[in-house]
Amino acid sequence: MDLGIRGRRAIVCGGSRGLGRGCAEKLAEAGVDLVLVARRQELLEEAAQAIAQAHGVDVVAVSADVTTAEGRAKALEAAPQPDILVNNAGGPPPGMWHDWTEKEWEAAIGANMLSPILFITAVLPGMIERRWGRIVNITSSSVKAPIAALGLSGAARSGLTGFVAGTSRQVAQHGVTINNLLPGQHETDRITSLMENTARTRGIPVDQVRADAYAMNPARRFGTIEEFGAACAFLCSVHAGYIVGQNLLIDGGAVNSTMG
Predict the structure, then answer these.
(1) H or E stretch covering 33
(2) Which residue, 39, 40, 121, 153, has most beta carbons within 10 Å?
(3) How far is residue 158's CA from residue 34's CA, in Å, rounded to a whole number?
(4) In which element (H, E) is residue 128 found?
(5) Residue 166: how many other CB atoms lie within 10 Å
């Protein structure tokens, strides 16, 4: 399927690896020029070069932390008028409610709620003026089905979800859509870290944690970054202009709900 976005320009946060890399690859495959933003310079440059060579698109690497005002400014300097924004920032470490002080809460809310909201509000005026834009936020399945150990992440991302619910319906008339992708367990460094933490807590091998997780998922596996990226690219396509303010679970059916 031709996604109809060849020649568009996207800012992809956290685009050097994991789910962000999956989104970047699929957007590039559709002919979208990219500004990849990530903190680790070496990994970022390697990813930018590989994507450019594989898909023949322009890829600019911006080493920055998008959870800061300075980082977002650097990204927008490279692409002042992006057609597409993929918001993506790593979640806070797991823990329990009694472990989290005001400092941890401020960090989580800043990174996973305020930063994407501020990025969205920075790019929306231009998208509205041009009467076309796509914004996709990578959040978490925990906004629909709470995960106790990920309370910081779930709470902060739920705040972003509430903002998107209202704002997306205000800007849809201008040809701009905002939607959220809610990943479950995918084959990423993040999930490996979480499984290692679980293994330590339960005192069992990490391979057993992985096997148990596979068994509990209806798909009997974790998702791939390619599958996730394809969903992101579709939401950014010309075919998704009537999809507004939605929260798409990509979790192999792990969240047991009639309505998704």
Answers:
(1) strand 33-38
(2) 153
(3) 28
(4) helix 115-130
(5) 9
Give, rounded to a whole angstrom, the gap between the first and last alpha carbons of the chain. Answer: 26
Task: Give the separation between CA 98 and CA 165, rounded to whole angstroms.
Answer: 30
In terms of C-beta density within 10 A (0-12 exposed, 13-18 middle, 19 or more buried), how is residue 125 classed? exposed
Six-digit token string for 18: 């994991």
DSSP type of residue 90: P
CA distance 13 to 86: 6
HSE toward the beta carbon, residue 202, CA cutoff 13 A: 14
Question: How far apart (Å, rounded) are the C-alpha atoms in residues 172 and 13?
Answer: 23
**How far is 195 from 167, CA to CA, in rounded Å?**
35
pTM above 0.85, yes or no: yes
**Per-residue tens of pLDDT for the chain, all 260 residues:** 999 999 999 999 999 999 999 999 999 999 999 999 999 999 999 999 999 999 999 999 999 999 999 999 999 999 999 999 999 998 888 899 999 999 999 999 999 999 999 999 999 999 999 999 999 999 999 999 998 988 999 999 999 999 999 999 999 999 999 999 999 999 998 888 888 988 998 999 999 999 999 999 999 999 999 999 999 999 999 999 999 999 999 999 999 988 77
